[in-house]
Design goal:
The protein has 330 residues and is of the alpha/beta class. The protein has helices at residues 2-25, 40-53, 67-76, 87-93, 100-107, 147-159, 171-180, 195-199, 215-218, 255-269, 271-277, 298-304, 319-329, and strands at 28-33, 57-62, 82-86, 109-125, 138-140, 165-167, 185-189, 207-209, 223-226, 238-250. It folds into two domains: 27-116 and 244-323, D-Maltodextrin-Binding Protein, domain 2 (3-Layer(aba) Sandwich); 119-243, Periplasmic binding protein-like II (D-Maltodextrin-Binding Protein, domain 2, 3-Layer(aba) Sandwich). Strands 1, 2, 3, 4, 5, 6, 7, 8, 9 and 10 form a ten-stranded mixed β-sheet that branches. Strand 5, helix 6 and strand 6 (165-167) form a beta-alpha-beta unit. Helix 10 crosses helix 12. The model is unreliable at 4-10, 14-24 and 322-330 (pLDDT under 50).
Length: 330
């Protein structure tokens, strides 16, 4: 009788081991929606995919047309649990009354982590010296619905500067038109160095980074500098402003909750690896930054609570939110 029991227990153990090994060998499939393949969002996505692969997570990195598309994607695109958006874009969307569906989705978008400041690149023809010089000019502001588009539109609303035309085209097309002289300037909101501006512009194109120091704008957006030599054709420091990029998810109440929490924990515990092996912008990421107006996804918070070193600073006022509120109330 004892031999039979031992035999049964042995077989049960073997079955359990087989199931465990089989489960461990099956990668968790996830997706992240980012931005242009030549932008910083996409590079961050690739870095994260490389990181989590070592923990048996297969993270598919998808390009997109911008932040608004990413908000929709984490809600309804199959197997897409993560996205990267601009902080001001989501704040803007949550206050847009004309699109109730998007507004409802935005309410359930949660922060995984704040990432980095995205510098607002304003590239123009030689001779433009300030943001105010865009008055009466033809300016490319990104595709409608993109983060660049909404931020550029907000900058013009805040400053009162009125171009003769807001050209709604993507950054690749905008750069080609700028080189051809069809437009006077273009916006690109992305963390430097931006691959497109580094690889597709030379000194012979006779283009410049235009400073953004308009007082009305700097009251709402944090000031920063794009250092000299960031791009081979840029000879001196250029003052500009920035907006925070945010890694987000939807308020999932299923297996995605656990999986997104795992990704959050892996990011937090492997920041040194990301700094050493990823995009240069990882070096300025502050995962503890208190981003006003955002709630951290509780599925991530529960994982982080188990890490002794994790702390979050008290929230501070985010002037961008106030700027958007004032603009939309006018």
């Amino acid at each position: 009788m004892m031999q039979v029991i031992k035999f049964v227990l042995l077989n049960l153990c073997l079955v359990l081991m087989t199931v465990t090994v089989s489960y461990a060998a099956t990668p968790v499939s996830m997706g992240i929606v980012t931005g242009s393949t030549k932008g910083t969002y996409y590079q961050f996505g690739l870095n994260l995919a490389q990181l989590v692969k070592t923990s048996n997570i297969d993270l598919r990195v998808s390009p997109s047309n911008g932040s608004v598309e990413n908000i929709y994607a984490v809600f309804k695109r199959p197997n897409t649990q993560l996205g990267i958006v601009q902080a001001d874009v989501l704040a803007f969307v949550t206050r847009v009354q004309t699109d109730p569906v998007l507004k409802q989705i935005a309410k359930k978008i949660k922060m995984v982590f704040p990432l980095y400041n995205e510098e607002i690149h304003l590239v123009g023809v030689n001779g433009l010296q300030s943001f105010a010089d865009l008055q009466g000019k033809r300016v490319a502001v990104g595709k409608e619905g993109s983060g660049t588009y909404l931020t550029a539109r907000l900058l013009f609303e805040i400053s009162g500067i009125k171009p003769s035309a807001l050209v709604t085209i993507g950054t690749n097309d905008a750069l080609e038109q700028l080189k051809a002289g069809s437009i006077d300037a273009m916006f690109y909101v992305a963390g430097y160095p931006v691959k497109l501006l580094a690889s597709d512009i030379t000194a012979e194109n006779n283009l410049v980074l235009v400073p953004i120091q308009n007082q009305a704008i700097t009251e709402f957006y944090p000031q920063t500098t794009i250092p000299a030599g960031t791009y081979g054709w840029q000879q001196s420091d250029v003052a500009t402003v920035a907006v925070k990029a945010v890694l987000v998810s939807y308020n999932f109440r299923n297996a995605n909750c656990e999986n997104v929490g795992r990704v959050g924990q892996l990011i937090y515990e492997n920041m040194e690896w990301l700094k050493q092996n990823g995009h240069p912008k990882w070096n300025v990421v502050d995962l503890n930054f208190p981003l006003k107006g955002w709630q951290q996804y509780d599925c991530v918070g529960k994982k982080l609570a188990k890490i002794p070193t994790f702390t979050r600073s008290p929230e501070e006022i985010n002037p961008v939110l106030e700027a958007i509120k004032d603009v939309l109330q006018e």
